[in-house]
Amino acid sequence: MRTLARTGHDALGIDILASQFTQAVGSIVDRGFVERCMAGIEAVIHTATLHKPHVATHSRQDFVDTNITGTLNMLEEASLAGVESFVFTSTTSAFGAALVPADGAPAIWITEDVTAIPKNIYGITKIAAEDLCHLFQRRKGLPCVVLRTSRFFPEMDDSMVLRAAYLNDNAKANEFLFRRVDLEDAVSAHLNAVERAPAIGFGRYIISATTPFWPEDLAGLHEDAAAVVRQRVPACEAEYQRRGWRLFPSIDRVYVNRKARGDLGWRPKYDFGHIVGQLKAGEEPGSDLARTVGAKGYHAEVFTEGPYPVE
Fold first, then answer.
1. H/E stretch holding 291
2. Taking CA 226 as the corner, what is the angle to CA 221 and CA 227, rounded to the nearest 5 degrees?
3. Residue 152 in 3-state DSSP?
4. What is the pLDDT of residues 130-156, one digit of tens each?
5. 204 phi and psi, to 5 degrees?
6. Residue 177 pLDDT exceeds 90
7. Burial of 194 (C-beta count, 10 Å sphere; 0-12/13-18/19+)
8. pLDDT single digits (tens) 91-128
9. Quick check: 105 and 98 in contact, CB under 8 A?
10. Residues 139, 140, 145, CA angle at the centre, nearest 5°?
11. pLDDT tens for each residue of 54-80
């Protein structure tokens, strides 16, 4: 919404909470509300969802209601309103168990061709919503693009072990190697998808920072990731030493954004090399947009054991 306002688009923000970027307060579970909001709309960016952090605090029915029924309401009304582009924000978490290599196996090269194996109600409902998008493209001709975004939230990691071992900025910088995207790049991917959806028809795309790795690195990443990183991005070593930071000893998967860059014309800026360059220049890592938006949180309450409870 911030970016659309700067670029002169007439955008309608809907949310369950009031804010300076919300013009209509309500839930996508309420089809009447969705119908009223869809009037005159040319493109939809559908980001509303219950997330992984809600798995331990919300029922499975809540997930079905918001992520599946809510998405169905959005698609039904978008189709009836003659919407020209429908972009659905999904998640790389949908890959689920497919992200975990067998014991002793190399890291996994994650492209759109990898078959998802959802491991919780979040992943299951996001995959179902993706399939609804595909159905409406096939049956109703509604151009739909699904973006499986990797991590872009600034909150602390949900792993107590990782929080104890790494500073927050250190851990997140490491993630740009294989499973994180800057918020500004995530936004540009969505805007590109809006423009390209009519020509694409339907497509699923991984939205993550461009990795410096290649398939031949996968065995080394699982055995000694730090050695591979020093080879691919040698500039990181001195800066990490200066800060007392550490690379992850092992990496289990690598998200590959090649298809999104090709089909969407997407040009993500914030990869690991760029983050290292910012650190060397004494800058805060990441985009101004990410810092401006900051942490929104997922719950009204605060949890002592972490940013959110883990099932």
1. helix 288-293
2. 85
3. coil
4. 999 999 999 999 999 999 999 999 988
5. -110, 135
6. yes
7. buried
8. 999 999 999 999 999 999 999 999 999 999 999 999 99
9. no
10. 95
11. 999 999 999 999 999 999 999 999 999
Task: Give the span between the Cα atoms of 16 and 298, in whole angstroms.
Answer: 13
Q: Where are the domains of the chain?
A: 2-285
| Residue 130 and residue 116 in contact, taking contact as beta carbons nearer than 8 Å | no
Calculate the dihedral angle through the C-alpha atoms of 236, 244, 224, 173, rounding to the nearest 10 degrees.
-60
In CATH, what number does 2-285 get? Answer: 3.40.50.720
Q: What share of the chain is helix, strand, coil (3-state, %, to 5)?
A: 45, 10, 40
How many C-beta atoms surround the C-beta of residue 173 within 10 A? 25
* Surface-to-core class of residue 6, CB atoms within 10 Å of its CB (0-12 exposed, 13-18 middle, 19+ buried): exposed
- Per the listing, tokens 């029915």 go with 61
Order of strands across the sheet with 144-149? Answer: 43-46, 85-91, 144-149, 202-207
Q: In the 8-state DSSP scheme, what is residue 216?
A: G
Q: Give the pTM.
A: 0.96
Q: Are 89 and 46 in contact (CB under 8 A)?
A: yes
